[in-house]
C-alpha cells in the first residue's frame, strides 16, 4: 500500500511540474512575438491548468513525505510565475494609464 501511495504521489508531482513547464512556455509566449503559449494555442483558459497543478502538488504533498519538498518547490514556482505575470501586467497598465493622461 505504501508503495502505491508513493507512486501516486510521484506521478502527481510530475504532472504538476509538466504543467509548470507549460506555464513557463506560456509566460515566454506572452511577451515574445516568435512563439505563442501552449494554452493560448490550444484555446485552454489558464485557470484550468493552474487549478490542476495546484491539486497535483497538493496531492503529492499530502500523500508522501518524500515528495513534500518537490511539491513545495512546485508551489513556489507557480507562485513566482503567477505573481510576476500580475506584476508585469500592473506595470504595463500603469504605463498606458500615464500615457493616456
Averaged pLDDT, please?
87
Total DSSP E strands: 0
Which stretches are low in confidence, meaning pLDDT under 50 for 5 or more residues running?
Answer: none
Q: Count every helix, treating DSSP H or I runs of 4 or more residues as helices.
A: 4
Radius of gyration: 17 Å
Describe the global form. Answer: elongated
H/E element string?
HHHH
Instruction: State the secondary-structure class.
Output: mainly alpha
Strand content: under 5%
Main sheet makeup? none
Q: Give the CA-CA distance, first to last residue.
A: 65 Å
Percent helix range: over 70%
In short:
This protein has 101 residues and is mainly alpha-helical.
Kindly describe this structure.
It is a single chain. With 101 residues, the protein is mainly α. The protein is 84% helix and 0% strand. The chain contains four helices and no strands. α1 packs parallel to α4 (68-100). The longest helix is centred in the last third of the chain and has 33 residues, at 68-100. The radius of gyration is 17 Å and the shape is elongated. The model has no long low-confidence stretch (mean pLDDT 87).
Amino acid at each position: 500500500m505504501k508503495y502505491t501511495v508513493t507512486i501516486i504521489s510521484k506521478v502527481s508531482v510530475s504532472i504538476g511540474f509538466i504543467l509548470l513547464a507549460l506555464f513557463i512556455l506560456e509566460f515566454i509566449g506572452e511577451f515574445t512575438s516568435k512563439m505563442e503559449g501552449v494554452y493560448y494555442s490550444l484555446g485552454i483558459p489558464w485557470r484550468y491548468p493552474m487549478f490542476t497543478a495546484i491539486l497535483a502538488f497538493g496531492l503529492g504533498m499530502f500523500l508522501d513525505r518524500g515528495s513534500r519538498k518537490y511539491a513545495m518547490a512546485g508551489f513556489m514556482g507557480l507562485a513566482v510565475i503567477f505573481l510576476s505575470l500580475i506584476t508585469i501586467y500592473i506595470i504595463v497598465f500603469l504605463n498606458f494609464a500615464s500615457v493616456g493622461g
